[in-house]
Amino acid sequence: MSFIRTLNGDIAPEELGRTYAHDHLFCIPPLWKEKKIDDFMIDDLEASIKDVELFTAQGGQAVYDATAIDYGRDPVALKAISDRTGIKIIATAGFNKAIMWPGQMAGAGCTFQQWIDGHSRAEIRDHVVREITVGMDGTELRGGVAKFGTGYNTISEAEDKVMRAVLDSHKETGSPLHSHTELGTLILEQLKIVKEEGVDPTRLTIAHVDRNPDHWIHLKAAETGVFMCFDGISRVKYHPESILIECILNLVRHGHEDQILVGGDIARRTMFRNYGEGGLGLGYILESWAPRFIEQAGDAGFDGKALIETFFVKNPQRAFVFKQ
Question: What is the domain range of residue 197?
């Protein structure tokens, strides 16, 4: 049986609709809160809802919220957003990356790093399995994706343990997988560990691949069947949109259009339209970027509208599915 797990229950894959494959609709990262970095505090429910309405006004229907526990996940707030706007939200079990682990783990009386160091791989697996099958953060709201992450060109001992534990949780639950890569590094190294652990790469989505616009790495990764998330759209401080679009079209030229996902990875107040900063907002990708992509894809000889439908509708139906 195949299904997608949302905060309002399991649905058939074809019910998902037009989907952003990586965003953060509400989160209060413990470490950034301790450091008083206000821009990362996505903590205003009404402002988040107004931005989601920009998304739905452009035909958006679902979001994968990639906020794990160490990045300040709040499943109750996310469900409220889902209930009030009508979008489907897939929430995140597992963990993000070691840079966040000096933060305090709620209810544990210690930092994330201390908790991870004090638990075995099997115990971490069981924790993630409970988040997927029972509920997250003391609720009955279940995660729909299991996540792990690595640092900038580094995989710490703790990240390696967490990664393998999350892969174990996938084996037990059949959940889809999502990985954080810091600035797009270690994509192939992550895939090597996935192979070592006997996990099918087609069950994994790798985030931030566009932070490292290396065609060779992208093609080598795509050859494994992994899903690749382009979530740096609008971040011209990294790369202009032309570079990202060329990376996507290069994968399409090589027959990998069925492995491409798109999201905004909006995680700063200054990126939202309704947090008082006047950012581009959650509707930007569908409203402005998609038409540009369609035009440039057409100039390159492709059916841009069909590709947009593939990236935002057809591919998420496969990427976020449970298989048991």
Answer: 2-323
Enter the tokens of residue 81: 């957003």
Residues 130, 314: Cα–Cα separation, whole Å: 29
Tokens representing residue 189 in the block: 């190294």
What token pair was written down for 124? 């971490």
CATH number at residue 275: 3.20.20.140
Strand partners, 230: 262
Question: Which strands form 88-90's sheet, in the order they lie side by side?
Answer: 19-23, 62-65, 88-90
pLDDT at res. 237? 87
pLDDT tens profile 51-73: 999 999 999 999 999 999 999 99
Q: How far is CA 179 from the centre of its chain?
A: 8
**Contact 50/81 with Cβ under 8 angstroms?**
no
Task: Please name the helix (run of DSSP H) or strand (run of DSSP E) that holds residue 126, with its range, or none.
Answer: helix 121-133
Task: Please give the tally of structural domains in the chain.
Answer: 1
Is there a contact between 261 and 319 (Cβ–Cβ < 8 Å)?
A: yes
pLDDT digits (tens, 9 = 90+) for 235-244: 888 899 999 9
